[in-house]
């Protein structure tokens, strides 16, 4: 069983008991609700299926859901060719944002890439210190500034340093307070615009970190960020500790954003790429023989 679906699978096993070759539609609906898939999605997926549903039938239904009306409607993460590739990272405090940045930097460095970090959460001194520890631990450069200094200037300096030092990646942290304060929203938009200016309007990645243990309840929070910033993708953290793995479907459906990485533990290498086929297979393995 894939680590990110372990708790989800255990929860399904407790609910279902023995795995089955075919399963009653109403029971399957309850199982999928237990996995934190929204009822609206479940209805759409199962509406054309009979009262007894097989593994293959459910796989086709989920595949169609991921694909959309056509192959071209499928939600994808758009890769960037220009260098340095900038990742501007957003998320509320406690979601695992700083840890995800460290893991992401380690992942790129392991691939032989040159990485620089930008400690842009200048509102929280502890966030700067935490990111400095990550930079030392994995051996990558970092740009910092004093507590409460302008985070947009920090982002600009980080990108300039990345260009001057011929870095492959620049990963920039941002403040993590809840996004329901208009001044913070404006600050995050300003940082994003500053990154665009520093890159001469070349594209960069705007990534939201979400706490996977919150499941579908994190969607409304994510919508606020997306409306302000036009995000490019999501990192879901703490997936090894949640039984709400089905929320992956809800998040993709509601936000129309790709999930690019999953955090599955505290170790440096416990950030894995999200692959929909693995997700679908893991979910089906939990239900069917």
Automatic annotation (TrEMBL):
Binding site for GTP: 91-98, 173-177, 237-240
Any GO BP annotation: SRP-dependent cotranslational protein targeting to membrane
Coiled coil regions in record: none
UniProt xrefs under PROSITE patterns: SRP54
Enzyme class, first EC level, given as a word: hydrolase
Membrane topology qualifier: Peripheral membrane protein
Gene Ontology cellular component annotations, sorted alphabetically: cytoplasm; plasma membrane
Main localization (coarse): membrane
Protein name according to UniProt: Signal recognition particle receptor FtsY
Species of provenance: Helicobacter didelphidarum
